[in-house]
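Example with several molecule types.
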Amino acid sequence: MEGRPLEDTELVERTKQGDVNAYAELVARYQEVAFRVAYQIAGLEADAEEAAQEAFIKAYYALGRFRPGAPWRPWLLRIVANEARNRRSASARRTGLALRAAEARASGDTALSPEVLVQARAQRAELLDAIHQLAEPDQLALTYRYFLDLSEEEMAAALDCARGTVKSRLSRALGRLREVMGVVQHG
Amino acid sequence: MVDEKDLEQRLGDLRPYLAYPPTPNLVGAVRARLVTAPRRPWWSSFVIPRRLALAAAAVLIVIGGLLAIPQTRDTIAHWFGVKGVIVNTVPSLPAGPLGQSLRLGQRTTLAGAQAGARFQVLVPTDPSLGQPDEVYLNDTMPGGEVSFVYRTRPDLPTSSKTTVAILVMEIQGGVNKNFFGKMIGPDTTLTEVTVNGGPGYWIEGSPHVFFFTDAQGAVRDEDMRLATNTLLWQQGDRTLRIEGAATRAQALQIAASMQ
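Resulting structure tokens for the full complex:
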């Protein structure tokens, strides 16, 4: 496959024609978001990897049900989320999201003073702690939207809810986060 | 206290600081599983011989990695007798897509195949075959893949479930890339043979699966075709195979006629 990158819909159609290389391109393109969505649900790295891999296999065999021209990513993420939920173990200890080590800080910080850096890091830790205190549905809504940058349609697929309820779920999650953090309300 | 206006901004800003586990590379594993179990209708079962697929993928990845080392590659080639060819034995095989498209690439002429392939194409001259009924070029394969199709006729019956009696396929197999894997089921026998002075295999029995991977461990799709008796050998810079021959003698006769 040379020249311009193929659109998802083109890759899906090629896959339906038997081109496994086209499907490999789709896997390469979306394995990160698939793995991270699975990780948010399953909570364990090994479960997330297995769920994501199984989801790609099932999506491949289910392509006959995929509506031509429809966006592929939400469809995939619905399967990923289902696989991850199936692998959740109530007894397993989940590892929540953590902050990166100091040396992995984002670009741009280097111009700031050490005091500001320390303060910023404390604020990030505070925010992440507050997220961890939320109920799981609220955590998922926030992480899908703000950390994985999922669209409304993709969030609906991953949360297994109607698209029309995504905004209200996100709004509720933000409200609870404000409560936990003691946010100053305006007006 | 946090200002409400800033909360969403702070959530967005947090993103690059989060430590997700590194994303595993799923491409090879997924591809290997698809290759060992070709796409089925969506209404069919989702159950996949996963343990088998994972074992096959592990074998491919390990050997593929070893083949990246020239000395090791040559040693492995010596073990198996054919440079670039690996034969693996597995306990069972996925169902084959017999009766479906053979997926040989684009239909072309002999001249078109010769012009499109980046290797010298050999053509069977055995009078029992005559001219190929159809010629195909698969240009998605490195160097191209050329196929000659001989349809079933009274003097050329088929042992497969397709209307194809004999299928001759050629693919480029250089020293710096690829090996060519073949999964052999328990009901299949494997015999080492000499073909045109070079090493090869006569594989007889139940349907089997072709696939191969490159030195980096990337597995390429090479679906089952006739999935009947197969003669597989290395000749020059190519790997060739003849599928569908009723007997080893017939396959060797066809191979010997290739020019």
